[in-house]
Write a structure and sequence with these properties.
The protein is α+β, with helices and mostly antiparallel strands. The protein has helices spanning 6-11, 64-72, 114-124, 129-142, 158-170, 188-205, 216-222, 240-245, 250-255, 340-345; strands at 24-35, 38-49, 53-57, 79-84, 87-88, 99-103, 176-180, 208-213, 225-230, 233-238, 260-267, 270-273, 278-280, 289-294, 300-302, 307-316, 321-327, 333-338, 356-360, 366-370.
Length: 372
């Protein structure tokens, strides 16, 4: 695989300052979209900061691609306003917006070689040929394909073709780069490599990236902030850590990562599960909370704990061992993720199918949620 100039990008200061201190690159105000009798987007208010790597995340049909297409001008909103850099561009066509798009299909021209593909937009804009060559070479160097300029696109691998598409999008120096599941067609190993490279490119150029994906792990790895969409509505906006540790809804808790969602009710200083077990709860938890979210890595297994459980299965996944357990006097199942040190420490307890153990977790690790 072609080497990528990681060291060069890491040694080059990012073009952008800390994104949280910047203004907004994109503003959506009251944006909706309906197709016939189907509502794809309910009234949406969204701010995306200048220089931010922002991810639109959610299941199929949640409205993320519709939102991206409205920003890009490929779909007109049914109502609402779209601003880029403070300017209303709601009715402006795609070719008159300071935006470029990278699609999952790459959309390269098969009859043109690599550098001709990258230069195509500049040629249409009648940029002088000498400037075309310079900017195209710079863009190809940025994505690690400087030596591929004359290669036919038919001879590129999937990862190389995607990098050419990114170079072609960046060469026109857009204010915003839209990426519609650009890594979805790649195998897992290459996908993870390009995630790293894409993040480095974004840091280097300082362009606002708006990235659509249904892959939670990909969004967590790439984004400065994530918006989770569900049936055309915003469930939560926040950093990956905020969303993972403090999900705003049961949907967000269940969609990002793996969660143990324990149902019950708060009674004084305790949370009473549906099977009658009493477990501790934060004093800051609302009186009306009906669920506790405990991530698998926070679930402790030992001889002592709040509640008993029986081991149902044990699976070795390399970096962790995944234990599935069923709570006593309940049909509820929970999951614990243990590293090698945990497994060694628990050897005397027994973690095979059928073994009985006790479960516990720190009060801070149990995130309370109210009924929707």
């Amino acid at each position: 695989m072609t080497s990528f100039p990681v060291e060069e990008l890491l040694s080059t200061p990012a073009a952008a300052a800390e994104t949280s201190k910047r203004g907004n690159a994109i503003e959506l105000r009251g944006v909706t979209k309906s197709f016939a009798d189907m509502v794809a987007l309910h009234p949406l208010d969204l701010d995306i900061r200048d220089g931010e790597f922002f991810c639109l995340l959610g299941p199929s049909g949640c409205g993320k691609t519709t939102t991206l297409n409205i920003i890009g001008g490929f779909t007109a909103p049914s109502s609402g306003v779209v601003r880029i850099a403070g300017e209303d561009i709601t009715k402006r066509p795609p070719n008159r917006r300071p935006v470029n798009t990278v699609f999952q299909s790459y959309a390269l021209f098969p009859h043109l070689n690599v550098v001709e593909n990258v230069s195509f937009g500049m040629r249409m804009a009648r940029v002088p040929k000498s400037e075309q060559r310079t900017r195209a070479r710079e863009a190809l160097d940025l994505v690690g394909l400087g030596t591929f300029a004359q290669r036919p696109v038919s001879q590129l691998s999937g990862g190389q073709a995607q990098r050419v598409a990114i170079a072609r999008a960046l060469v026109n120096k857009p204010s915003v780069l839209l990426l519609d599941e650009p890594l979805g067609a790649l195998d897992l190993k290459l996908r993870k490599r390009l995630q790293t490279e894409l993040s480095l490119i974004q840091r280097h150029v300082g362009t606002t990236f708006v990235f659509v994906t249904h892959d939670q792990e990909e969004a967590m790895a790439l984004a400065d902030r994530i918006v989770i969409l569900n049936e055309g509505r915003i469930e939560q906006i926040g950093t990956p850590e905020e969303i993972y540790r403090r999900p705003a809804s049961l949907f967000a808790a269940d969609f990002i990562g793996e969660s143990n969602i324990l149902h019950g009710k708060k009674e004084g200083s305790a949370f009473v599960l549906e099977n009658g077990a009493r477990v501790p709860i934060s004093g800051h938890a609302p009186e009306t909370c009906t669920s506790l979210v405990v991530r698998p890595e926070a679930l402790r297994i030992g001889k002592d704990g709040f509640i008993g459980a029986q081991v149902l299965s044990r699976g070795y996944l390399g970096s962790i061992t995944r234990i599935v357990l069923q709570l006593e006097n309940s049909e509820m199942q929970v999951v614990s993720s243990l590293n090698d040190g945990d497994i060694e420490h628990l050897a005397e307890i027994g973690l095979e199918a059928g073994d009985f153990v006790k479960l516990s977790w720190s009060t801070e690790a149990a995130h309370p949620l109210e009924a929707p």
